[in-house]
Amino acid sequence: MSALPAQAWSAAALVLLAAAWPAGLWAAARGGVVRRLAGLCLAGTVTGAVLLLLPMAYDRPSYQDAALVFAVLSPAGVLVFTRFAGADSGPGPDSGPGSGPGSGPGSGPSREDG
User: Fold this and answer.
1) Taking a C-beta distance cutoff of 8 angstroms, is the pair 28, 65 a contact?
2) Cα-to-chain-centroid distance, residue 89
3) Chain-centre distance of CA 35, in angstroms?
4) How confident is the model at residue 80 (pLDDT cuts 50, 70, 90)?
5) Rounded Cα gap, residues 46 and 13, in angstroms
6) Of 82, 81, 83, 55, whose CA–CA distance to 68 is shortest?
7) pTM for the whole thing?
8) pLDDT of residue 97
9) 56 near 2, Cβ under 8 Å?
10) CA angle 93, 31, 97 (to 5 degrees)
11) CA Rg, the chain, in Å?
12) How many CA atoms lie within 13 A of 5 on its CB side?
């Protein structure tokens, strides 16, 4: 049993859900890849914290297993997001036909006009 009343734990979870979680979702929905990744990490962290606070509010410590599972799966989700976001970033400015390993100056057959 915790020393804080259930209302305090519930209020802390509500503050996180009302303030930090929408900010993380907003950042994950807009901006560049790095900003979306940061928003996804923020939303995952807030969700894990809420999943830890609510079992304390309802005096159900066995429900903290959900927070543990989420804490293990959240970084895996970030890695999957990074993998697919990197695939959608498109070709870089130097990519194109003839650009790749070994296609720089002096790497191929040279022709001297003379």
Assistant:
1) no
2) 16
3) 9
4) confident
5) 9
6) 55
7) 0.65
8) 57
9) yes
10) 15
11) 24
12) 3
Residue 1's pLDDT band, with cuts at 50, 70 and 90, is: low
**Phi, psi (degrees; rounded to nearest 5) at 27:** -70, -35
Q: Both tokens of residue 42?
A: 């923020």
Q: For residue 77, what pLDDT is reported?
A: 83
Q: How close are the terminal C-alpha atoms of the chain, in Å?
A: 90
Give dist(CA 73, CA 68) in Å, integer.
9
Location of structure tokens 């993998």:
83
Q: Which two tokens stand for residue 94?
A: 């130097």
Asked if the model's pLDDT at residue 67 lies above 70, the reply is yes
Looking at residues 87-108, what average pLDDT do you find?
A: 54
Query: Are 41 and 33 within 8 A, CB to CB?
Result: no
d(CA 63, CA 16): 18
| Number of Cα atoms under 13 Å in the Cβ half of residue 79 | 5
Per residue in 42-56, pLDDT (tens digit) is: 888 899 999 999 998
